[in-house]
Amino acid sequence: MDSTRFILINTSHAGNVGATARAMKVMGFRELVLVAPRFPDVLCHEEAIAMASGAADILARARVVPTLAEALEGVDFACATAMTPRDFGPPVYRPRELFADLAARAPAPRLGLVFGSERYGMANEDVYRCHAVLSIPTHPDYGSLNLAQAVQLLSYDLRQALGGFAVQPRTPDPERADARAVQGLLDHLQTALVDIGYLDPAAPKKLMPRLNQLFNRAGLTNEEVHILRGMARQMSKTIRPQGSE
């Protein structure tokens, strides 16, 4: 199912073709087939290439065929996309549930996802060629999706059914400052606060213990300690006469 074929019928807008290629590549799919697009040269159209945004290789490999029958050659299980269920035709499924079922089959079928025109969707005879209809759960009062948005949603659900991609590990947290480093900062900051007249050494109250608690909650890193000590140094330097340090 990694080789799932994405099939667009009678696509009107070149930008949607490019955006579809981008949506596919993001989820690791490669095969795109266009059935009788409005513009025969849509794959090399400037807007399509611009909207592909780095997925021009998908456009370069894509095929244009005249009929859906040709686009479905080699496909074992075809899924139509339709906004509303039909009175007659293949059964309707939620994408996530159907993809999980198909992925669990051995061997998994060669899948084809079929998308209709932006202007009028899929014709009934095209839907009848498919094994299932996929209905993306949307708000009941408004279920109109842009073509590329629909491709992105379905390709995401399909990729998740296939196991998904590993999340990139986060950059390790910088090293936390130890108690000695924090105490050195407090001593340095106390001197600076006295220099600028903010702290009265004769009546310090609980300013420094409160700052100590603040720094403990913040979990300062060594780099942050260096920054704060640099600020304290500059505060003292600004107040003291030149050469009195």
TrEMBL record:
It holds the Pfam family SpoU_methylase. SUPFAM superfamilies: alpha/beta knot. InterPro entries: Alpha/beta_knot_MTases, RNA_MeTrfase_TrmJ/LasT, SpoU_MeTrfase, tRNA_m1G_MTases_N. Its main location: cytoplasm. It is found in: Cytoplasm. GO terms for biological process: methylation. The keyword Heme does not apply. Its EC number is 2.1.1.200. Residues 5-156 form the tRNA/rRNA methyltransferase SpoU type domain. One of its GO terms (molecular function) is methyltransferase activity. It catalyses: uridine(32) in tRNA + S-adenosyl-L-methionine = 2'-O-methyluridine(32) in tRNA + S-adenosyl-L-homocysteine + H(+); cytidine(32) in tRNA + S-adenosyl-L-methionine = 2'-O-methylcytidine(32) in tRNA + S-adenosyl-L-homocysteine + H(+). Keywords: Cytoplasm, Methyltransferase, S-adenosyl-L-methionine, Transferase, tRNA processing. Catalyzes the formation of 2'O-methylated cytidine (Cm32) or 2'O-methylated uridine (Um32) at position 32 in tRNA. Homodimer. PANTHER family: TRNA (CYTIDINE_URIDINE-2'-O-)-METHYLTRANSFERASE TRMJ (PTHR42786:SF2), TRNA/RRNA METHYLTRANSFERASE (PTHR42786). Belongs to the class IV-like SAM-binding methyltransferase superfamily. RNA methyltransferase TrmH family. This is tRNA (cytidine/uridine-2'-O-)-methyltransferase TrmJ. It comes from Roseateles paludis.
